[in-house]
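Pipeline run #58 for the internal structure catalog. This entry was flagged by the ingest filter as a single-chain record with no existing model, so it goes straight to prediction. Upstream metadata was stripped on purpose; only the residue string is passed forward. Reviewer on rotation: M.T. Logging verbosity set to normal.
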Amino acid sequence: MLKRFLSLLTAAATVSTWTQFIPAHADDAPSVYPYTIFAGSDADGAITINSGNVCINGNVATNGTIAASSANFNVNGQRTEHAGAEMILINSR
């Protein structure tokens, strides 16, 4: 009797993990942080990438410059240097 009850309890716990899907979605508000990579520094080489092949899917911006020593440096989005943008405090929300 105890084995049957434990088996039923284990089966119920297993099935319950399959059926409890919680959908996740992003806010419908406009993009608060529109960059994949952002550097608030205004120094030369504020974003420095030393790699053989780099592909960034999104926008890259810096208040300084971007220095990449890679043979293949690809940005699928906007690449902005000297943006003059203010650093966003993510933890203040």
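catalog note: The longest helix spans residues 2-19.
catalog note: Helices lie at 2-19.
status: ready for reviewer M.T.
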